[in-house]
Amino acid sequence: MTPKRFARIQSVLAKRQPDLTVVMDGVHKPHNLNAIIRSCDAVGVLEAHYVPVQGGYEPLNHYAKGSQKWVTTHEHASFPEAASTLKQQGYQLLAAHLSEQAVDYRSVDYTQPTAIVLGEELKGILTETAQAVDGHIVIPMMGMVESLNVSVAAAVILFEAQKQRLAKGLYDHCRLDEETFQRLLFEWAWPDLARRFRAKNQPYPPLDEQGNILNTQTIRLPG
């Protein structure tokens, strides 16, 4: 761990948005799931959610460019389960879905706690999902095609959310609580060691300003 690398990790963590997320409801192509996670990392999303397809997903691959290490993903058995969890946390759920009620994606306030819901590549959002969310958003299309690839649509919407949040100053200060910040700081800086501490149910040791572990003489590192 170099001081430059540690400073980079601190800077990125300080810009993470704990109240902006995506829900992938049946996105079944690994390259799309990976690309969405990569866009999440790019705009500072802390956590993402997904409802797996039958048979599960293939391992994250090069499309994510390693971003899966920086965005925590949560699996849900069904969309209603995911929706219930997020609504209890105060999120507005917005589905990328063409309907009579849909509004231009740029007209929405993404500075509120927001979960962007994305559906399966071919069929899109299920009827049940469309009825369960708080609103529908669309990206206006000027060509012959009626929609974008799901990962491209996710990126377009996420960067609109980033634009609004930048204007409101939500990236100007750390929005993570101190406990979460310090936990993630250790896990990002020392991922292999963090896994060993968790396996032994041991707390993480403190780090100094350059990312070095303090008091290594008094800490019994897990084997």
Output the keywords.
alpha/beta, Alpha/beta knot, 223 residues, 36% helix, 2 domains, seven-stranded parallel β-sheet
Radius of gyration: 19 Å
Largest sheet, strands/sense/barrel: 7 strands, parallel
Q: Which geometry do the CA atoms define?
A: elongated
- Mean pLDDT over all positions: 90
**What is the name of the CATH architecture of the largest domain?**
3-Layer(aba) Sandwich
List SSEs in N-to-C order: HEHEEHEEEHEHHH
Task: Annotate the secondary structure layout.
Elements: H1 3-14, E1 20-25, H2 30-43, E2 47-51, E3 72-75, H3 79-88, E4 92-96, E5 103-104, E6 114-118, H4 127-132, E7 135-138, H5 150-167, H6 178-189, H7 191-199
Parallel strand pairs: 1-2, 1-6, 2-3, 4-6, 4-7, 5-7
Describe the structure.
The protein is of the alpha/beta class and about 220 residues long. The chain folds into two domains: about 1-15 and about 175-223, no CATH class; about 15-165, SPOUT methyltransferase, trefoil knot domain (Alpha/beta knot). The protein is built from seven helices and seven strands; from the N terminus they run H-E-H-E-E-H-E-E-E-H-E-H-H-H. It has helices at about 5-15, 30-45, 80-90, 125-130, 150-165, 180-190, 190-200; strands spanning about 20-25, 45-50, 70-75, 90-95, 105, 115-120, 135-140. Mean pLDDT is about 90; it is low at about 60-65.
